[in-house]
Amino acid sequence: MKQIRLFSGLFTVGFWTLASRILGFLREILLTAYIGPGPVMDAFVAAFRLPNMFRRFFAEGAFNAAFVPMFSKRLEGDENAEGFAQDAFNLLAVAVLALVGLAMVFMPALVWITAEGFYGDERFDLAVDYGYVVFPYILFMSLAALFSGVLNATGRFAAAAAAPVLLNIFACTALIAAAAMGGDVIRWLIAVIPLAGIAQLALVWVATERAGIRIRPGLPKLSPEMRRMVRIAVPAALAMGVTQVNLVVGQLVASKTEKAVSWLFAADRLYQLPLGVVGIAVGIVLLPDLSRRLRAGDKDGARNAFSRAGEFTLLLTIPSTVAFVVLPNPIVSVLFERGQFSAEDTTATALAVAVYGIGLPAFMLQKLLQPLFFAREDTRSPFHYAIVAMIVNAGLAFGLYPLVGWIAPAIAASTAGWAMVALLAIGARRMGEEARFDARFKRRAWRIVAASLGMGVVLYAAIHLFGWTFQLPGWRYLALILLIKVAAASYFFLGHLFGAFEVSEFKKALRRS
Asked: Which secondary-structure segment (H or E) carries 105?
Protein backbone atom coordinates (compact mmCIF):
# COMPACT_ATOMS: atom_id res chain seq x y z
CA MET A 1 0.00 0.00 0.00
CA LYS A 2 1.41 3.38 -0.99
CA GLN A 3 1.71 5.60 2.07
CA ILE A 4 0.66 9.25 1.96
CA ARG A 5 3.51 11.65 2.63
CA LEU A 6 1.83 14.63 4.26
CA PHE A 7 4.20 17.51 3.50
CA SER A 8 5.04 16.19 0.04
CA GLY A 9 1.31 16.02 -0.72
CA LEU A 10 0.71 19.48 0.69
CA PHE A 11 3.43 21.01 -1.47
CA THR A 12 2.30 19.11 -4.58
CA VAL A 13 -1.32 20.18 -4.21
CA GLY A 14 -0.26 23.65 -3.12
CA PHE A 15 2.02 24.08 -6.15
CA TRP A 16 -0.62 23.12 -8.70
CA THR A 17 -3.31 25.08 -6.90
CA LEU A 18 -1.02 28.11 -6.88
CA ALA A 19 -0.51 27.71 -10.64
CA SER A 20 -4.28 27.49 -11.10
CA ARG A 21 -4.91 30.56 -8.94
CA ILE A 22 -2.25 32.60 -10.74
CA LEU A 23 -3.83 31.75 -14.07
CA GLY A 24 -7.19 32.48 -12.46
CA PHE A 25 -5.88 35.93 -11.58
CA LEU A 26 -4.87 36.42 -15.19
CA ARG A 27 -8.40 35.39 -16.20
CA GLU A 28 -9.96 37.94 -13.80
CA ILE A 29 -7.47 40.63 -14.87
CA LEU A 30 -8.46 40.10 -18.51
CA LEU A 31 -12.15 39.96 -17.60
CA THR A 32 -12.07 43.18 -15.59
CA ALA A 33 -9.96 44.93 -18.24
CA TYR A 34 -12.07 43.91 -21.25
CA ILE A 35 -15.48 44.12 -19.59
CA GLY A 36 -15.10 45.80 -16.20
CA PRO A 37 -17.55 46.01 -13.30
CA GLY A 38 -21.06 46.52 -14.64
CA PRO A 39 -24.12 44.66 -15.93
CA VAL A 40 -22.27 42.12 -18.11
CA MET A 41 -19.71 41.16 -15.46
CA ASP A 42 -22.38 41.05 -12.75
CA ALA A 43 -24.43 38.67 -14.91
CA PHE A 44 -21.43 36.45 -15.66
CA VAL A 45 -20.51 36.21 -11.96
CA ALA A 46 -24.07 35.24 -11.02
CA ALA A 47 -24.30 32.62 -13.80
CA PHE A 48 -20.87 31.08 -13.20
CA ARG A 49 -21.47 30.90 -9.47
CA LEU A 50 -24.42 28.53 -9.98
CA PRO A 51 -22.48 25.45 -11.18
CA ASN A 52 -19.65 26.24 -8.78
CA MET A 53 -22.06 26.40 -5.86
CA PHE A 54 -23.66 23.05 -6.69
CA ARG A 55 -20.23 21.56 -7.39
CA ARG A 56 -19.28 22.14 -3.75
CA PHE A 57 -22.37 20.22 -2.69
CA PHE A 58 -22.27 17.35 -5.19
CA ALA A 59 -18.55 16.89 -5.64
CA GLU A 60 -15.73 18.46 -3.66
CA GLY A 61 -18.04 19.06 -0.73
CA ALA A 62 -20.71 16.57 0.21
CA PHE A 63 -19.87 13.67 -2.07
CA ASN A 64 -16.14 13.58 -1.47
CA ALA A 65 -16.57 14.17 2.27
CA ALA A 66 -18.49 10.89 2.32
CA PHE A 67 -16.69 9.06 -0.49
CA VAL A 68 -13.01 9.65 0.35
CA PRO A 69 -13.00 8.27 3.93
CA MET A 70 -15.06 5.20 2.91
CA PHE A 71 -12.91 4.54 -0.17
CA SER A 72 -9.68 5.12 1.80
CA LYS A 73 -10.67 2.59 4.46
CA ARG A 74 -11.58 -0.02 1.84
CA LEU A 75 -8.29 0.64 0.10
CA GLU A 76 -6.41 0.23 3.39
CA GLY A 77 -8.28 -2.99 4.19
CA ASP A 78 -8.17 -4.35 0.61
CA GLU A 79 -12.01 -4.56 0.53
CA ASN A 80 -12.90 -4.13 -3.18
CA ALA A 81 -12.26 -0.37 -3.28
CA GLU A 82 -12.56 -0.36 -7.08
CA GLY A 83 -16.09 -1.81 -6.98
CA PHE A 84 -17.08 0.79 -4.40
CA ALA A 85 -15.73 3.59 -6.62
CA GLN A 86 -17.59 2.16 -9.63
CA ASP A 87 -20.93 2.19 -7.80
CA ALA A 88 -20.28 5.70 -6.48
CA PHE A 89 -19.47 6.94 -10.00
CA ASN A 90 -22.73 5.62 -11.42
CA LEU A 91 -24.81 7.06 -8.59
CA LEU A 92 -23.15 10.46 -8.82
CA ALA A 93 -23.52 10.62 -12.61
CA VAL A 94 -27.27 9.97 -12.49
CA ALA A 95 -27.81 12.46 -9.64
CA VAL A 96 -25.92 15.27 -11.37
CA LEU A 97 -27.57 14.59 -14.74
CA ALA A 98 -30.94 15.00 -13.02
CA LEU A 99 -29.73 18.25 -11.45
CA VAL A 100 -28.60 19.60 -14.83
CA GLY A 101 -31.97 18.74 -16.36
CA LEU A 102 -33.84 20.56 -13.60
CA ALA A 103 -31.57 23.57 -13.87
CA MET A 104 -32.20 23.86 -17.60
CA VAL A 105 -35.94 24.01 -16.91
CA PHE A 106 -35.82 26.33 -13.91
CA MET A 107 -32.83 28.55 -14.78
CA PRO A 108 -34.79 31.85 -14.47
CA ALA A 109 -35.92 30.80 -10.99
CA LEU A 110 -32.36 29.89 -9.98
CA VAL A 111 -31.08 33.31 -11.05
CA TRP A 112 -33.94 35.06 -9.25
CA ILE A 113 -33.28 33.13 -6.02
CA THR A 114 -29.54 33.89 -6.03
CA ALA A 115 -29.59 37.42 -7.49
CA GLU A 116 -33.07 38.82 -6.89
CA GLY A 117 -31.77 42.38 -7.27
CA PHE A 118 -31.15 41.72 -10.99
CA TYR A 119 -34.86 41.26 -11.68
CA GLY A 120 -36.28 43.99 -13.87
CA ASP A 121 -33.05 45.06 -15.58
CA GLU A 122 -30.75 43.68 -18.28
CA ARG A 123 -28.59 41.74 -15.82
CA PHE A 124 -31.35 39.21 -15.20
CA ASP A 125 -31.81 38.16 -18.83
CA LEU A 126 -28.06 38.07 -19.38
CA ALA A 127 -27.49 35.87 -16.31
CA VAL A 128 -30.21 33.43 -17.42
CA ASP A 129 -28.76 33.29 -20.93
CA TYR A 130 -25.24 32.66 -19.64
CA GLY A 131 -26.51 30.11 -17.10
CA TYR A 132 -27.90 27.82 -19.80
CA VAL A 133 -24.41 27.51 -21.30
CA VAL A 134 -22.21 27.22 -18.21
CA PHE A 135 -24.37 25.06 -15.92
CA PRO A 136 -23.54 21.70 -17.60
CA TYR A 137 -19.97 22.33 -16.41
CA ILE A 138 -21.06 20.83 -13.07
CA LEU A 139 -21.53 17.38 -14.61
CA PHE A 140 -17.93 17.13 -15.81
CA MET A 141 -16.50 18.70 -12.65
CA SER A 142 -18.50 16.47 -10.30
CA LEU A 143 -17.29 13.33 -12.05
CA ALA A 144 -13.76 14.73 -12.18
CA ALA A 145 -13.94 15.30 -8.41
CA LEU A 146 -14.73 11.62 -7.86
CA PHE A 147 -11.69 10.55 -9.87
CA SER A 148 -9.64 13.13 -7.97
CA GLY A 149 -10.84 11.61 -4.70
CA VAL A 150 -9.68 8.18 -5.87
CA LEU A 151 -6.26 9.54 -6.82
CA ASN A 152 -5.88 11.46 -3.56
CA ALA A 153 -6.77 8.40 -1.50
CA THR A 154 -3.99 6.45 -3.22
CA GLY A 155 -1.47 9.22 -2.51
CA ARG A 156 -1.34 10.44 -6.14
CA PHE A 157 -2.05 14.16 -5.93
CA ALA A 158 -0.46 15.70 -9.02
CA ALA A 159 -3.04 15.00 -11.75
CA ALA A 160 -6.01 15.87 -9.55
CA ALA A 161 -4.36 19.11 -8.42
CA ALA A 162 -3.31 20.03 -11.97
CA ALA A 163 -6.75 19.50 -13.54
CA PRO A 164 -8.23 22.91 -12.49
CA VAL A 165 -5.38 24.62 -14.33
CA LEU A 166 -7.05 23.60 -17.60
CA LEU A 167 -10.11 25.77 -16.96
CA ASN A 168 -8.00 28.89 -16.62
CA ILE A 169 -5.86 27.99 -19.64
CA PHE A 170 -9.01 27.61 -21.75
CA ALA A 171 -10.55 30.78 -20.33
CA CYS A 172 -7.47 32.99 -20.77
CA THR A 173 -6.97 31.72 -24.32
CA ALA A 174 -10.59 32.48 -25.19
CA LEU A 175 -10.45 35.99 -23.71
CA ILE A 176 -7.23 36.92 -25.48
CA ALA A 177 -8.33 35.38 -28.80
CA ALA A 178 -11.73 37.11 -28.67
CA ALA A 179 -10.16 40.49 -27.96
CA ALA A 180 -7.55 40.05 -30.69
CA MET A 181 -10.12 38.94 -33.29
CA GLY A 182 -12.77 41.48 -32.34
CA GLY A 183 -15.19 38.84 -31.06
CA ASP A 184 -17.70 39.05 -28.23
CA VAL A 185 -15.36 38.47 -25.28
CA ILE A 186 -17.97 37.25 -22.81
CA ARG A 187 -19.53 34.82 -25.31
CA TRP A 188 -16.17 33.26 -26.07
CA LEU A 189 -15.45 32.90 -22.37
CA ILE A 190 -18.78 31.22 -21.63
CA ALA A 191 -18.48 28.84 -24.58
CA VAL A 192 -15.17 27.34 -23.43
CA ILE A 193 -16.21 26.64 -19.84
CA PRO A 194 -18.01 23.31 -20.61
CA LEU A 195 -15.14 22.35 -22.94
CA ALA A 196 -12.67 22.92 -20.12
CA GLY A 197 -14.78 20.67 -17.90
CA ILE A 198 -14.52 17.85 -20.44
CA ALA A 199 -10.74 18.28 -20.59
CA GLN A 200 -10.44 18.17 -16.79
CA LEU A 201 -12.54 15.01 -16.59
CA ALA A 202 -10.43 13.33 -19.29
CA LEU A 203 -7.18 14.16 -17.46
CA VAL A 204 -8.13 12.62 -14.10
CA TRP A 205 -9.94 9.67 -15.70
CA VAL A 206 -6.78 8.69 -17.60
CA ALA A 207 -4.67 9.21 -14.45
CA THR A 208 -6.99 6.90 -12.50
CA GLU A 209 -6.66 4.22 -15.18
CA ARG A 210 -2.87 4.48 -14.93
CA ALA A 211 -3.15 4.10 -11.16
CA GLY A 212 -4.70 0.68 -11.79
CA ILE A 213 -8.32 1.54 -10.97
CA ARG A 214 -10.77 0.98 -13.83
CA ILE A 215 -14.12 2.79 -13.72
CA ARG A 216 -16.74 2.62 -16.47
CA PRO A 217 -20.26 4.12 -16.77
CA GLY A 218 -23.12 1.84 -15.82
CA LEU A 219 -26.51 1.68 -14.13
CA PRO A 220 -26.59 2.90 -10.52
CA LYS A 221 -27.11 0.45 -7.66
CA LEU A 222 -28.59 1.53 -4.34
CA SER A 223 -26.63 -1.04 -2.35
CA PRO A 224 -26.37 -0.77 1.47
CA GLU A 225 -22.95 0.87 1.02
CA MET A 226 -24.36 3.48 -1.36
CA ARG A 227 -27.27 4.19 0.96
CA ARG A 228 -24.84 4.69 3.82
CA MET A 229 -22.70 6.99 1.71
CA VAL A 230 -25.75 9.08 0.79
CA ARG A 231 -26.76 9.34 4.45
CA ILE A 232 -23.30 10.67 5.22
CA ALA A 233 -23.21 12.94 2.17
CA VAL A 234 -26.51 14.75 2.74
CA PRO A 235 -25.52 16.57 5.96
CA ALA A 236 -22.01 17.13 4.55
CA ALA A 237 -23.59 19.05 1.67
CA LEU A 238 -24.28 22.00 3.91
CA ALA A 239 -21.27 21.52 6.16
CA MET A 240 -18.81 21.74 3.24
CA GLY A 241 -20.87 24.17 1.17
CA VAL A 242 -21.43 26.77 3.87
CA THR A 243 -18.91 29.15 2.30
CA GLN A 244 -20.66 28.92 -1.06
CA VAL A 245 -24.06 29.42 0.53
CA ASN A 246 -22.76 32.48 2.34
CA LEU A 247 -21.37 33.83 -0.93
CA VAL A 248 -24.75 33.38 -2.59
CA VAL A 249 -26.50 35.15 0.31
CA GLY A 250 -23.94 37.92 -0.06
CA GLN A 251 -24.60 38.09 -3.78
CA LEU A 252 -28.32 38.33 -3.13
CA VAL A 253 -27.76 41.33 -0.86
CA ALA A 254 -25.09 42.92 -3.07
CA SER A 255 -27.23 42.61 -6.21
CA LYS A 256 -29.24 45.56 -4.90
CA THR A 257 -26.23 47.83 -5.54
CA GLU A 258 -24.85 48.29 -9.05
CA LYS A 259 -21.30 46.96 -9.46
CA ALA A 260 -21.24 45.50 -5.93
CA VAL A 261 -21.41 41.90 -7.18
CA SER A 262 -18.35 42.57 -9.35
CA TRP A 263 -16.44 44.23 -6.50
CA LEU A 264 -17.08 41.36 -4.11
CA PHE A 265 -16.20 38.84 -6.82
CA ALA A 266 -12.83 40.50 -7.47
CA ALA A 267 -12.10 40.60 -3.72
CA ASP A 268 -13.16 36.97 -3.38
CA ARG A 269 -10.66 35.97 -6.08
CA LEU A 270 -7.86 37.59 -4.07
CA TYR A 271 -8.47 35.89 -0.74
CA GLN A 272 -9.18 32.62 -2.55
CA LEU A 273 -5.51 32.53 -3.60
CA PRO A 274 -4.06 31.62 -0.18
CA LEU A 275 -7.24 29.73 0.70
CA GLY A 276 -6.80 27.57 -2.39
CA VAL A 277 -3.08 27.05 -2.02
CA VAL A 278 -3.13 26.26 1.70
CA GLY A 279 -6.66 25.54 2.90
CA ILE A 280 -7.78 23.32 0.06
CA ALA A 281 -4.39 21.56 -0.05
CA VAL A 282 -4.67 20.76 3.66
CA GLY A 283 -8.23 19.47 3.29
CA ILE A 284 -7.41 17.30 0.28
CA VAL A 285 -4.29 15.70 1.76
CA LEU A 286 -5.33 15.49 5.42
CA LEU A 287 -8.70 13.74 4.95
CA PRO A 288 -7.45 10.48 3.36
CA ASP A 289 -4.37 10.46 5.60
CA LEU A 290 -6.44 10.75 8.79
CA SER A 291 -8.97 8.19 7.53
CA ARG A 292 -6.30 5.57 6.89
CA ARG A 293 -4.42 6.25 10.15
CA LEU A 294 -7.59 5.98 12.20
CA ARG A 295 -8.50 2.74 10.43
CA ALA A 296 -5.05 1.38 11.32
CA GLY A 297 -5.36 2.56 14.95
CA ASP A 298 -2.40 4.95 14.57
CA LYS A 299 -3.56 7.69 16.95
CA ASP A 300 -0.09 9.18 17.42
CA GLY A 301 0.37 9.40 13.67
CA ALA A 302 -3.05 11.02 13.29
CA ARG A 303 -2.20 13.66 15.90
CA ASN A 304 1.15 14.35 14.28
CA ALA A 305 -0.48 14.72 10.85
CA PHE A 306 -3.14 17.06 12.25
CA SER A 307 -0.58 19.21 14.09
CA ARG A 308 1.83 19.45 11.16
CA ALA A 309 -1.04 20.41 8.84
CA GLY A 310 -1.98 23.06 11.41
CA GLU A 311 1.54 24.48 11.35
CA PHE A 312 1.51 24.56 7.55
CA THR A 313 -1.84 26.37 7.66
CA LEU A 314 -0.67 29.06 10.08
CA LEU A 315 2.68 29.56 8.35
CA LEU A 316 1.05 30.90 5.19
CA THR A 317 -2.33 32.09 6.47
CA ILE A 318 -1.39 34.61 9.14
CA PRO A 319 1.08 36.61 6.98
CA SER A 320 -1.46 36.59 4.13
CA THR A 321 -4.08 38.03 6.46
CA VAL A 322 -1.74 40.76 7.63
CA ALA A 323 -0.87 41.66 4.02
CA PHE A 324 -4.54 41.90 3.00
CA VAL A 325 -5.31 44.19 5.92
CA VAL A 326 -2.26 46.44 5.50
CA LEU A 327 -1.90 46.54 1.69
CA PRO A 328 -5.34 46.10 0.08
CA ASN A 329 -5.23 49.20 -2.14
CA PRO A 330 -1.79 48.60 -3.69
CA ILE A 331 -2.61 44.93 -4.32
CA VAL A 332 -5.96 45.64 -6.01
CA SER A 333 -4.56 48.58 -7.95
CA VAL A 334 -1.73 46.56 -9.49
CA LEU A 335 -3.81 43.47 -10.23
CA PHE A 336 -7.03 44.95 -11.55
CA GLU A 337 -6.91 48.72 -12.22
CA ARG A 338 -6.72 48.98 -15.99
CA GLY A 339 -9.10 49.15 -18.92
CA GLN A 340 -12.69 49.26 -17.63
CA PHE A 341 -11.63 48.84 -13.97
CA SER A 342 -11.43 52.37 -12.51
CA ALA A 343 -9.82 53.91 -9.40
CA GLU A 344 -13.30 53.96 -7.82
CA ASP A 345 -13.55 50.20 -8.38
CA THR A 346 -10.12 49.77 -6.77
CA THR A 347 -11.17 51.62 -3.61
CA ALA A 348 -14.34 49.59 -3.23
CA THR A 349 -12.68 46.23 -3.95
CA ALA A 350 -9.80 47.00 -1.57
CA LEU A 351 -12.25 47.55 1.28
CA ALA A 352 -13.79 44.14 0.63
CA VAL A 353 -10.32 42.54 0.47
CA ALA A 354 -9.44 43.89 3.92
CA VAL A 355 -12.71 42.62 5.42
CA TYR A 356 -12.36 39.20 3.80
CA GLY A 357 -8.74 39.14 4.98
CA ILE A 358 -9.88 39.27 8.60
CA GLY A 359 -11.96 36.16 7.94
CA LEU A 360 -9.24 34.33 5.99
CA PRO A 361 -7.77 32.43 8.99
CA ALA A 362 -11.28 31.20 9.80
CA PHE A 363 -11.85 29.91 6.27
CA MET A 364 -8.47 28.15 6.46
CA LEU A 365 -9.06 26.61 9.87
CA GLN A 366 -12.37 25.17 8.69
CA LYS A 367 -10.43 23.17 6.08
CA LEU A 368 -8.16 21.91 8.86
CA LEU A 369 -10.86 21.03 11.41
CA GLN A 370 -13.54 19.52 9.17
CA PRO A 371 -11.43 16.44 8.23
CA LEU A 372 -11.37 15.50 11.92
CA PHE A 373 -15.11 14.86 11.65
CA PHE A 374 -15.25 13.54 8.10
CA ALA A 375 -12.46 11.01 8.71
CA ARG A 376 -14.73 9.51 11.38
CA GLU A 377 -17.67 9.60 8.94
CA ASP A 378 -19.33 12.19 11.18
CA THR A 379 -20.99 14.74 8.91
CA ARG A 380 -23.92 15.55 11.18
CA SER A 381 -21.94 17.63 13.66
CA PRO A 382 -20.45 19.95 11.00
CA PHE A 383 -23.95 20.11 9.47
CA HIS A 384 -25.38 21.50 12.72
CA TYR A 385 -22.51 23.95 13.07
CA ALA A 386 -23.03 25.10 9.48
CA ILE A 387 -26.68 25.86 10.19
CA VAL A 388 -25.62 28.21 12.98
CA ALA A 389 -22.97 29.85 10.77
CA MET A 390 -25.47 30.35 7.95
CA ILE A 391 -27.94 32.02 10.32
CA VAL A 392 -25.18 34.34 11.56
CA ASN A 393 -24.19 35.17 7.97
CA ALA A 394 -27.73 35.82 6.71
CA GLY A 395 -28.68 37.85 9.79
CA LEU A 396 -25.64 40.12 9.49
CA ALA A 397 -25.77 40.43 5.69
CA PHE A 398 -29.40 41.55 5.62
CA GLY A 399 -29.28 43.34 8.95
CA LEU A 400 -26.17 45.42 8.25
CA TYR A 401 -27.07 46.34 4.66
CA PRO A 402 -29.24 49.33 5.66
CA LEU A 403 -26.39 50.55 7.88
CA VAL A 404 -23.18 49.95 5.91
CA GLY A 405 -24.45 49.18 2.40
CA TRP A 406 -22.90 46.73 -0.05
CA ILE A 407 -19.95 45.79 2.21
CA ALA A 408 -22.35 44.03 4.62
CA PRO A 409 -21.95 40.60 2.91
CA ALA A 410 -18.17 40.65 3.41
CA ILE A 411 -18.52 41.51 7.10
CA ALA A 412 -21.14 38.79 7.49
CA ALA A 413 -19.05 36.13 5.73
CA SER A 414 -15.96 36.77 7.87
CA THR A 415 -17.96 36.78 11.11
CA ALA A 416 -19.79 33.58 10.17
CA GLY A 417 -16.47 31.96 9.31
CA TRP A 418 -15.14 32.56 12.81
CA ALA A 419 -18.39 31.30 14.32
CA MET A 420 -18.01 28.07 12.36
CA VAL A 421 -14.41 27.61 13.53
CA ALA A 422 -15.39 28.11 17.16
CA LEU A 423 -18.09 25.46 16.90
CA LEU A 424 -15.79 22.99 15.11
CA ALA A 425 -13.07 23.46 17.72
CA ILE A 426 -15.49 22.92 20.60
CA GLY A 427 -16.96 19.85 18.90
CA ALA A 428 -13.52 18.31 18.29
CA ARG A 429 -12.68 18.28 22.00
CA ARG A 430 -14.54 15.00 22.52
CA MET A 431 -12.39 13.14 19.98
CA GLY A 432 -9.38 12.54 22.21
CA GLU A 433 -5.70 13.44 21.98
CA GLU A 434 -5.42 12.72 18.24
CA ALA A 435 -7.69 15.73 17.59
CA ARG A 436 -5.59 18.10 19.70
CA PHE A 437 -2.50 20.01 18.70
CA ASP A 438 0.77 18.72 20.09
CA ALA A 439 3.41 20.61 22.08
CA ARG A 440 5.44 21.56 19.01
CA PHE A 441 2.41 23.25 17.39
CA LYS A 442 1.62 25.17 20.57
CA ARG A 443 5.24 26.25 20.86
CA ARG A 444 5.40 27.50 17.29
CA ALA A 445 1.91 28.98 16.81
CA TRP A 446 2.43 32.16 18.82
CA ARG A 447 5.85 32.64 17.21
CA ILE A 448 4.24 32.51 13.74
CA VAL A 449 1.73 35.17 14.85
CA ALA A 450 4.51 37.35 16.27
CA ALA A 451 6.57 37.10 13.07
CA SER A 452 3.51 37.98 10.97
CA LEU A 453 2.67 41.01 13.12
CA GLY A 454 6.29 42.14 12.89
CA MET A 455 6.06 41.82 9.11
CA GLY A 456 2.90 43.94 9.24
CA VAL A 457 4.71 46.71 11.10
CA VAL A 458 7.48 46.70 8.48
CA LEU A 459 4.93 46.84 5.64
CA TYR A 460 2.96 49.64 7.32
CA ALA A 461 6.12 51.72 7.64
CA ALA A 462 7.20 50.96 4.06
CA ILE A 463 3.85 51.93 2.52
CA HIS A 464 3.80 55.21 4.43
CA LEU A 465 7.37 56.03 3.46
CA PHE A 466 7.25 54.93 -0.17
CA GLY A 467 3.53 54.76 -0.96
CA TRP A 468 3.86 57.82 -3.19
CA THR A 469 5.65 55.66 -5.78
CA PHE A 470 2.30 53.99 -6.57
CA GLN A 471 1.14 57.29 -8.03
CA LEU A 472 3.95 57.42 -10.59
CA PRO A 473 3.08 56.06 -14.06
CA GLY A 474 4.39 52.54 -14.50
CA TRP A 475 6.00 52.42 -11.04
CA ARG A 476 3.19 50.72 -9.13
CA TYR A 477 4.16 47.28 -10.46
CA LEU A 478 7.78 47.60 -9.33
CA ALA A 479 6.67 49.14 -6.03
CA LEU A 480 4.38 46.18 -5.24
CA ILE A 481 7.10 43.67 -6.15
CA LEU A 482 9.48 45.44 -3.78
CA LEU A 483 6.85 45.46 -1.03
CA ILE A 484 6.31 41.71 -1.49
CA LYS A 485 10.05 41.12 -1.24
CA VAL A 486 10.23 43.25 1.90
CA ALA A 487 7.30 41.31 3.37
CA ALA A 488 8.83 37.91 2.56
CA ALA A 489 12.29 38.86 3.82
CA SER A 490 11.00 40.35 7.08
CA TYR A 491 8.65 37.40 7.72
CA PHE A 492 11.27 34.72 7.14
CA PHE A 493 13.89 36.65 9.12
CA LEU A 494 11.58 37.19 12.09
CA GLY A 495 10.14 33.67 11.84
CA HIS A 496 13.60 32.11 11.93
CA LEU A 497 14.69 34.50 14.70
CA PHE A 498 11.66 33.70 16.86
CA GLY A 499 11.88 29.96 16.18
CA ALA A 500 8.57 29.80 14.29
CA PHE A 501 10.07 27.42 11.72
CA GLU A 502 13.32 26.06 10.35
CA VAL A 503 14.27 26.86 6.75
CA SER A 504 15.64 23.32 6.41
CA GLU A 505 12.09 21.97 6.82
CA PHE A 506 10.99 23.75 3.64
CA LYS A 507 13.99 22.40 1.75
CA LYS A 508 13.24 18.81 2.81
CA ALA A 509 9.58 19.11 1.88
CA LEU A 510 10.42 20.55 -1.52
CA ARG A 511 12.89 17.73 -2.22
CA ARG A 512 10.27 15.11 -1.31
CA SER A 513 7.60 16.72 -3.50
From this structure: helix 81-105
